[in-house]
Every structure is written in C-alpha cells, then in structure tokens.
Amino acid sequence: MELQDKVVLITGAKGGLGSFVTPAFLNAGARVIGVSRSMADSDFPHECFSALAAEISDGEKAAKVMDEVVGRSGRIDALVHLVGGFAGGKPIAETSDEVSDRMFDMNFRSAFHMIRAALPHMREQAGGRIIAIASKAAVEPSPTVGVYAASKAALVSLIRTVARENADRGIAANVVLPGTMDTPANRASDPTADFSKWVNPCQVASLLVHLASSRASNINGAVIPVYGTEA
C-alpha cells in the first residue's frame, strides 16, 4: 500500500489506459478522484474512489476541477494526466487547422491547464507528483503523424520545465513515452497486428504508481520510454 491515503487525481480515469491505471492506484491504497466528461462512482466501485464528471478544456474549467478536488480532500498529492488523442494519416502539407488544433488541445493544452491549476496547491503544501503520458512519437516522429508527434513533444517539454521550476518545493514531474499499447481500442483498430509486441498497459500503470510514490522521490524531469518489443 505504497500510496496509502494519498490523494490522486486521474484525468481520463476510465479511458483505454485509465481502466488499468485507476485500479492500480486504488490497489496501492490511494484515494482516487477520477475525472472525465462522463464519470460516475459506479465506474470503479471502491470505497476510495470518487468520480468527478467535468471538462478540462480550458483554464477556468481546470481550475474549478482542482478547487473541487482540494475542497473534497484538503490536498492533492499527485496529478496523473492520461487525457490525450490521436489523429494522423496525412502529411503536414495536407493537415488541416482543425486537426492541428484538436491535437494540441487534447495532448498539450489539457495538461497545461491541469498542471497550472495543481501547482499552487502543491507548492503551498511543499510536495506533489505530476505524471503525464506522452508517446514514443514525441521523440521519434513518423510521416503522416507530424502534428500528433509535435503536440506530444510539447507535452514533454512542458513536463521537463515544470520539474525544473518546482523542485525547490518538493514537487516532481515526469513523463512516460509508451509505444503502441495493448488496449481493446488499439486491437480493434489494427486487428492483424502482433499484439505480443505491444506495451502491456498494466506495466505502464505499475510504473505510474511507482512514480507517484515516495520511492521515486529522486526521479524528476525524467522522460521514460516504454516501447514494448516493437521498437
């Protein structure tokens, strides 16, 4: 129970990765508040789970979410940001403004809003953990996914900056770069792939729990690749 009674806010708590991450944090003893647009306590029937149905699409909404979390629990020990999205299939010359805006909204701005809202509380309490999910594409971009890769690269830069700006207050910020994860949605989108080469989401969940714990207090500003065997 390495996170016993720690207050953990998980965005995208019941998404493809969230369905693995949220139970992992609950099993580690955390008090989890799960956020998504449609979220209910019944999504994870556990005495230490509570739902918060909300959007984080702009700074004002993110601030309201954070105020609600701190109002309920008195503190926030970890922000685990899982929200993200993917769009690709066209080269940069043919990529629309709509796709560009959507990728940066989902993969960068949502994290920026939540982190900015969390930091004053964490700085006041002199401690906290911030963990985000980027992508292998952030450091190894491929043709036709350029805007997606750029949005994830921006997230990596954001996390590394947060780590440097807040280490003096006992706050650590780290980012994980998974390859293709073995989730039901990814299997459905690529049914002929060799799933054995994909990343096991349970291992990603375990890594996030470790990064949120006191055992990872010396890990700060890390960009951690988890590529499976497809690399």
What does this entry look like structurally?
β5 (128-133), α4 and β6 form a beta-alpha-beta unit. The two termini are 33 Å apart. With 231 residues, the chain is an alpha/beta fold. 40% of the residues lie in helices and 16% in strands. It has one domain (7-226): 3-Layer(aba) Sandwich (Rossmann fold). It has helices spanning 18-27, 59-73, 97-125, 146-166, 184-189, 201-212; strands at residues 7-11, 31-36, 49-53, 78-81, 128-133, 171-178, 223-226. α2 (59-73) packs parallel to α3 and α3 runs parallel beside α4 (146-166).
State the major sheet.
7 strands, parallel
Q: How are the strands ordered across the major sheet?
A: 3-2-1-4-5-6-7
Ends distance:
33 Å
Strand content is 15-25%
Topology (elements, then pairings):
Layout: E1 7-11, H1 18-27, E2 31-36, E3 49-53, H2 59-73, E4 78-81, H3 97-125, E5 128-133, H4 146-166, E6 171-178, H5 184-189, H6 201-212, E7 223-226
Parallel strand pairs: 1-2, 1-4, 2-3, 4-5, 5-6, 6-7
